[in-house]
Write a structure and sequence with these properties.
Elements: E1 2-5, E2 8-36, E3 40-56, E4 59-73, E5 79-93, E6 103-119, E7 127-155
Antiparallel strand pairs: 1-2, 2-7, 3-4, 4-5, 6-7
Length: 172
């Protein structure tokens, strides 16, 4: 679209963009206990798995799982591996967000840490792996909108024209 304003000609285009409504960092804290045939834990890798976001008035509810890979040494001194899924749910307050077909929620994992303790089993019982997982997730709510953006500006200088002025003298 071309718009003319005095000595300017502006060319605009209508774009479909995501307009940010708000963003917050949410914290997930979950714990789990797992029976395991282990004498030592080598390492635990954790990451976010599949999730769903549910938008309500002024809040987003996030529901999903944390996927863990546990590497351990068993009673025969072999390195083993198990995988686990730990469910979680959290609520994030984002003022201004409302349920709509045009709302888009983005999630960015900032960090995830696991703390664990291996409790040995007694008289032939399996050991217990106690874990606490803390994750921080940036939750950003945006809404699709159409905006007009100026893509080109042309300036035309004003032409300095002399105007003829006539003066009449009145005689009294």
């Amino acid at each position: 679209m071309i718009v003319r304003k005095s000595n300017l000609v502006l060319t605009t285009e209508r774009l479909k963009v995501l307009k940010v409504i708000g963003e917050r960092v949410a914290q997930v804290v979950v714990e789990s206990e797992t029976p395991i045939n282990a004498i030592k834990i080598d390492k635990i890798d954790a990451r976010l798995g599949p999730f769903e976001d549910h938008v309500f008035e002024n809040k987003v509810v996030k529901q999903g799982v944390i996927l863990k890979q546990v590497f351990y040494v068993d009673c025969d001194n072999f390195v083993r591996h198990i995988s686990e899924e730990v469910p979680y749910m959290l609520t994030v307050e984002i003022p201004g967000v409302k349920p709509s077909d045009f709302v888009d929620v983005q999630n960015h994992l900032i960090d995830i840490d696991t703390d664990f303790q291996l409790v040995p089993g007694h008289s032939g019982e399996l050991a217990t792996l106690r874990q606490k997982i803390v994750a921080h997730i940036l939750v950003k709510a945006s809404e699709w909108a159409q905006v007009d953006v100026v893509t080109n500006v042309q300036s035309f200088p004003k032409i300095n024209t002399m105007q003829r002025v006539s003066c009449f003298q009145k005689k009294w």
